[in-house]
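Quick one: structure for this chain?
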Amino acid sequence: MKKSYLFFLFVFVSVSVFSQKIIVQDANNLPIAFAQISIKSALNKSVHFEIIADSLGVGIVTLNNDDWYLINISAVNYVAIKDSFLYQNKNVIFTLKLVAKNLNTVNVVSKKKLITLDDEKMVIDAQQYANSAINAFEVVKKTPSVIALENAIYLGATPASIYINGVEQKLSQEDVINLLKNMPASVVSKIEITQITSAKIDASTAGGMINIILKKGVKIGLGGNITIGANQGKYSDKYISGALNKNDNSINRYINVSITNANNFVDDVKIRFQNDSIKTAINTYNKNRGKTYFIGFGIGKEIAKTKNINFDGTISYNPSNTFSDGANEIYLKNVIINTAKSFTNINNDKNNFNSANSFSYKKMLDTIGSEIASNITYNYAFSKNNQAIATTFSLLPIYYQTIDFKKSVHTIMGNLDYTKKLNDLWKIETGIKLSVQYFATKTDYSSNIKNYFSNTENINAVYAQASRKISKMLLKVGLRAENTNMTGYQTQPSDTSFKWNRVDIFPFAYFSYPIMKLMGMPITGNIVAKKFITRPSYTYLNPAIEFINPYLNKYGNPSLKPKFTQKYEANLTAMNFPFLAIGQNVETNIFAEVNKPNIINNAITDKTYGNLSTSKELYIRLFAGVPPGAIKNYYFFIGGMYSNIKINGVYDNAALNFSAKSFKYYTVHEIQATKNTNVELFGYWLVNTQLELAKFKNFGGVFLNISQDILKRKAQVSLYFNDVFYTQGTNYVFAQGAISSSGNNTTDSKRIGFTFKYNFGGKIIKNNAINKVADGILN
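Got it. Here's what it folds into:
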């Protein structure tokens, strides 16, 4: 087998077909009987074999000469392996290692690639990030190519769509971030990133799709783990979590629980200029304290090896308190001293509750990949915030106000997908999806002002797509139709009702072709394109006024229209590793956060949302590195992205034209210092980043994690350092119309912490399916 440096650059070849022996043996060159072997073509996902080795450890399969394949091998009492090989008309031998001698425990240790490509998805192993994170949001923040800020998560210049276990989280960006912060890092298994999704996925993923896959337990016997940890910045965080899972007789059950006590701060400075005559300076220090209680659970059953039924659920509760201490100053043009000065104290007592319940069913229709899959999900989110505001002015009495805010979101989604593989050349996919969301807010002010708003969104979708292998080429085309029905009602203080009813068509195309071989590796070229829609979320539409500080209000815009995006990308992959991509995003009718003077007091700025015409973005993305195993005890990768975005539009009768060039850099290094010691270094750096209308100065972070296996690898201790150089603070400039602003935001991100994880159980159970095969062969 060949392993070489991946200084990566494009896959496939061959016509001659041979029967090949896959030989599975142990460290003493003795055969391992009845090993389970899974083989996939690295270039054509329709080529997939599932076989069981005979009593001599030999599996027979028909492969194409000079093609690369991915292989998974597992056997009872042996450590499973994942590997790749180039078939060259000769037998291939794989050696498996025995698990720990103590048969009461099973410790599976195999090196995984950090990044692989699965069709349009980039799949990232997130478990190493979880060792130095307290919640799922911190895991996402460390993920290559992701920009995770406190108010939104990005893959490019517009917010990304967040999915959990393949289910769209139909929440605002703020609510999604709150949900991820309430989810422990230990339950995150991997993260899938898709820049351009297929026709099977919702057309609302214009900003890209981030799918967070949660752990559901292991596949052998009874086992679990307990994790405790703490970290210290200016304030401290503490957490404890546990997991228990059991798999026997084709039934898999699991439960994950965690309790977190988090404390941190946000230091925020904003300066705004209005019509070049009024300057407002606001310095706010927020101290946040909160607890999170989380439970995840599920049960799955395999029926006759062809059907799977699963139920999964999560519940989280997060009581928290935020106390803000702010100093506010207003300056008039040509006046040396400030004309108004005030101090504001804001106390927020919040309670957030989230639950998600999902039932899924899958039936295999044949042995080559045809299937029927369905899923029904119900999500419920509720939040309550009691806000008390006290403002002290220089020459006026103290101003008091209280605001009670309640929000509830109910979401029901169901989908049915049908996949038919006609042969090795043709694959047909079709399906339907229905989603209904009801959102309601009630805001009561002590000044007797009330704001009641509700919004109902119903989206019905149908799609069809087909893929065809033509010689060495793979072509996939699809079409998705979505019917949007949206109704909004504001009953207090005035009627701002609106209705949408529209049908939109979204074409999709994907093309893949083997270009060449580099150092024995196939290099594949891919081209993908799709049309998208971005509907404004309920936060963008809700007209209720949110008090930020005495000189800043925030509210939604019920008259917003949806944004449309056309995305194109060409990329190169080597052994399923994406190393070069060039793409373009063209957006029309874009909407974004905008500032405007308050109609009553022009010293106050109103932050809202508006449609702003068009934008065009050109980007280049590059990854390179050394894969696991190419250099003994070390691997790394580096990546970068260049983006050039241009916006041309009008808002409030003022031109809004600008362009920006930005860069993103990422790197991951891992060193196996000893047999039981790993050192991991992660880092990212963003240069001149443009996110919607805000331009950020350079910022980034470096993260170091040192982990040590102890107690015969049943336990692991990790020491980690987050934001080592304290460079994650952001500085931005926001220029739009008559109002321009700048600011900087610093958080409690520089931290030192530890985790201790102990694995227990893992009793080996007999595999009845393997035993039946063995009995048939031996008898």
